[in-house]
Amino acid sequence: MRIVDPTFGTPVEEDTPTVVAADVPARSLCLFSNSKPGANELLRGVAGHLEAERGFAGIGFSSKPNAAAGAAPDVLDHLAAQYRMAVVAIGD
Question: Tens of pLDDT along 70-86?
Fold first, then answer.
């Protein structure tokens, strides 16, 4: 799978803030997969880019048991309590 940066080649503004500030906790980001084909691979690639290019560390990963069912409210509550942000992959 190839991940393409949609912002590549666009001008960078000088006053663009850093994505990860010094006071952001290490476990600030979770990647959440809906378990569709390709979603896990997509998220793992995104994690690699975020770690290498944006300085994120300790990225969490979670997924639904299957693509046909919604996420359980207790799982979502747990993730909300543990992380400040989430990237959700819908795959296919």
Answer: 888 898 888 888 888 88
Sequence-separated (6 or more) residues with CB below 8 Å from residue 45 = 1, 3
pLDDT in tens, 16-53: 445 445 555 546 889 999 888 888 888 888 899 888 88
Q: Tens digits of per-residue pLDDT, 55-75?
A: 888 899 999 888 888 888 898
DSSP β-ladder status, 29-33 and 85-89: parallel
- What the block records as the tokens of 10 is 């666009």
Model confidence, pTM: 0.66
Tell me the longest C-alpha to C-alpha distance in the chain: 44
Taking the chain, what is the end-to-end CA distance rounded to the nearest angstrom?
A: 12
Q: Where are the domains of the chain?
A: 35-89
Which residues lie closer than 8 Å to 33 by C-beta, 6 or more apart?
A: 39, 40, 43, 61, 62, 63, 64, 88, 89, 91
